[in-house]
């Protein structure tokens, strides 16, 4: 997990490997910190994520809800393969604008 601040102040959070029960607390803390900062929002790059379970999905949805309350942006980008499929089946992909098209639009900005 790494963070980078884009030119507009948006925090780009890059995740890799498995997003599951073992890392959900770290992800939750990171999202809380970002959303409590002066950043206008967070862009979560999941291109290198190989596995996403229900605890990871729950953490992402909680982050999305916190961002809504704080009037900040929150988007997932780069979802592909099994990760994209899990997000689609659970209905979370559309909510978080996940998928390769979101990655292309993020890279263009």
UniProtKB/TrEMBL annotation:
It comes from the Bacteria. It holds the Pfam family STAS. Coiled coil: none annotated. InterPro entries: Anti-sigma_ant (IPR003658), STAS_dom (IPR002645), STAS_dom_sf (IPR036513). Signal peptide: none annotated. GO terms for molecular function: anti-sigma factor antagonist activity. Residues 8-109 form the STAS domain. PANTHER family: ANTI-SIGMA FACTOR ANTAGONIST TM_1081-RELATED, ANTI-SIGMA FACTOR ANTAGONIST TM_1081-RELATED-RELATED. Belongs to the anti-sigma-factor antagonist family. This is Anti-sigma factor antagonist. It comes from Allocatelliglobosispora scoriae.
